[in-house]
Amino acid sequence: IYFDFILFFIYINIFKRSYFSVFKMLRIISANVYSGCRMFLKNKYLKNNIIQNMEFSITGSKPNDSKKFDIRHNFHAEVEEGLNQQINQEFCIGYVYLFMANIFNRFDVALPGFSKFFQESAVEETHHAQMLINFLNKRGGQLELKNINAPEKKDWTNPECAVECSLELEKQVTKNLEALCETGQKHNDLILCDFIESNFLHEQYESIKQLGHLLTNLQRVGPGVGVKIIDIELLNSKDLTMHSYKTSK
Fold it and tell me: Which reaction does it catalyse (predicted)?
């Protein structure tokens, strides 16, 4: 740019050109000045952009990043951990019920009523886990899923043993839910206590009672035809979740 002005000065004073020639020379110089300014600004923009990218790669944040926020409120880490443990337990129990359901559906066991009963119970446990996940997300927590181990017992051909095992599992779930409520009370988390009591605890105690009814009937009839009669009742029942099973009159 400066070189153009020097040429212009020499052009006027030495060659004594006309005003038209001077105007033409000014247009050429203006075009060069405009081109030079564009190149300067472009290089400056690229330089700043490179610097910002380098800062982002080092710090992990851009200069104009929005301020981070969190929706967590009165949500203690111990409560979050307890919820994650309960979610994983629900999935594990559903896994066991699914295994039972498929055993009772085998050709050499042929108890479709018990298969249907445990199949729907597995779906119910998965639904419980999803309810807990939704609550965890609503509170601003993070889900941590664990590996699910295969059931230790492989032979569930005896319905009485399967129902007895289910009863113990449901009692353990109830105990853990009550412990989770105690953790919520410890940290004054009232919404957690209300959620667990209204959506889980009442249903758990109903499930324990109905499993007790089913186990009593199985022990009463003993092996043989009586088991098949109960199996037919389960197969014809519309709602087979554990808390809805009714004893026959």
Answer: 4 Fe(2+) + O2 + 4 H(+) = 4 Fe(3+) + 2 H2O
Rounded-to-integer distance, Cα 77 and Cα 74, Å: 10
67 found inside a domain: no
Instruction: Please report which residue ranges of 76-149 form alpha helices under DSSP H.
Output: 77-104, 112-138
Q: What is the pLDDT of residue 246?
A: 45
| Angstrom distances, CA of residue 88 to CA of 64, 92, 94, 145, 192 | 40, 6, 10, 6, 18
Is residue 128 annotated as involved in ligand binding?
yes
Residue 244 counted as domain residue: no
12 in Cβ contact with 22 (< 8 Å): yes
Same domain, 113 and 28: no
The whole-number pLDDT of residue 45 equals: 55
Taking only the tens place, the pLDDT of each residue in 11-45 is 555 544 454 555 555 566 566 655 666 665 556 55
Binding residue per annotation — 168?
no
pTM: 0.70
Domain CATH for 117 = 1.20.1260.10
**Regions of the chain short of the pLDDT cut 70:** 1-67, 239-249
